[in-house]
Predict the 3D structure of the following.
Amino acid sequence: MIICHDCDLLQTKPDLQHQGKALCHRCGAVLFRSVPDSAQRVVALSLAGLILFAVANIYPFLAFDVGSQSTQTTLFTGVRELYAQGLWALAGLVFFTCIAAPLIQLVLMMHIFLPVMLGRTSYAVKPAFRLLLQLREWNMIEVFMIGILVALVKLTKMAIIIPGVAMWSFMALIFILTGAMTSIDGRIVWDRVDSEK
Ligand SMILES: [Zn+2]
């Protein structure tokens, strides 16, 4: 049995063999999605995401003009530079959405889905999965942040985004993250949790 989170109707859990959505009989809300090989997909995409994240943070991302000199910085040192310039709110936003949130998502996905793939249960899987689902609601925020970053660069005339390896890795990371998040089939996690009881 499964309860609809929208209208609380208790109904028999439909058996989905292939990719698709199970809908509530009464209100039509999505009960769950079925994704074939969900764990394998999430793990593969997260691994690719972690590599892209590393590349995006190792190579120079921004170039700042300080006086007559131009210095190239990584995304993280760029954030520190924004902070040093007194733009602390923006620095915080860029740090959270472009660095912390993607990294937390990638680490959580590896932490939850690698053990599921291997038929094991990871530590604190319930709170970890709830946090991941919450972050999923924000999953396009990186795109907005790139927009804000570009606007900032244009407005302050202080920095430019270097169209190099780091920027392309970051763009690819956004697609990989979105792909990984949509590959999540929640049932395989909850089934794993239930089987441990
Ligand atoms: Zn319903």
